[in-house]
Recover the amino acids of this structure.
């Protein structure tokens, strides 16, 4: 599938702001995919779930994103949220998100049931666990293995209880190379 084709499908969805989830477990490649999709859509904003999650709260942070980002944008208002800073393990600066043709919500649990009804489109990035772990440790270092294992277990429980992949409009192969024009899809449940 071409990125331009995906962008066209998203543009066809009703607005005023098309909320697009790019979801998948840690290390799947959601950040890279979301950045490429944002560029294709005209550099639309990307809100990262990592700006809400914390080392001691990998899944339960969602009420703050719902209140500060999803609800305002879903009703055509601008959003404003306080970013979580991983280096200081505390809330940091405020980030403004203006209305746009689309806003991408990127990262683990981006397509969760608590706001799925507000989403115009869901992309699921499918990547095997061993590759996700390899990517994560390459980025964070081998000392991060216990955190990656803990988070992986929490993600597994979340996705068993809230199978976002089953609701995806497009499932992307996170192991196939993505070039500037296209990506590989895999069959979805829809």
């Amino acid at each position: 599938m071409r990125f331009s084709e995906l962008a066209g499908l998203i543009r066809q969805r009703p607005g005023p702001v098309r909320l697009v989830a790019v979801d998948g477990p840690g290390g799947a490649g959601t950040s890279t995919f979301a950045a490429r999709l944002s560029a294709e859509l005209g550099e639309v904003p990307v809100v990262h779930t990592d700006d809400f999650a914390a080392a001691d709260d990998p899944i339960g942070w969602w009420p703050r994103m719902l209140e500060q980002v999803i609800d305002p944008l879903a009703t055509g208002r601008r959003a404003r949220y306080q970013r979580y800073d991983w280096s200081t393990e505390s809330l940091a600066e405020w980030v403004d998100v203006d209305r746009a043709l689309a806003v991408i919500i990127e990262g683990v649990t981006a397509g969760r049931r608590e706001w799925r009804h507000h989403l115009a489109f869901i992309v699921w990035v499918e990547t095997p666990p061993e590759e996700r772990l390899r990517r994560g440790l390459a980025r964070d270092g081998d000392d991060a293995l216990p955190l990656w294992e803990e988070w992986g277990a929490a993600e597994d429980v979340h996705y068993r209880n809230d199978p976002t992949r089953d609701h995806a409009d497009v499932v992307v192969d996170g192991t196939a190379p993505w070039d500037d024009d296209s990506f590989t899809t895999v069959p979805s449940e829809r």
In short: The chain is about 35% helix and 25% strand. The first strand starts at residue 18 and ends at 23. The radius of gyration is 16 Å. The beta strands are 18-23, 46-48, 79-85, 90-97, 102-106, 119-126, 170-173, 185-186.
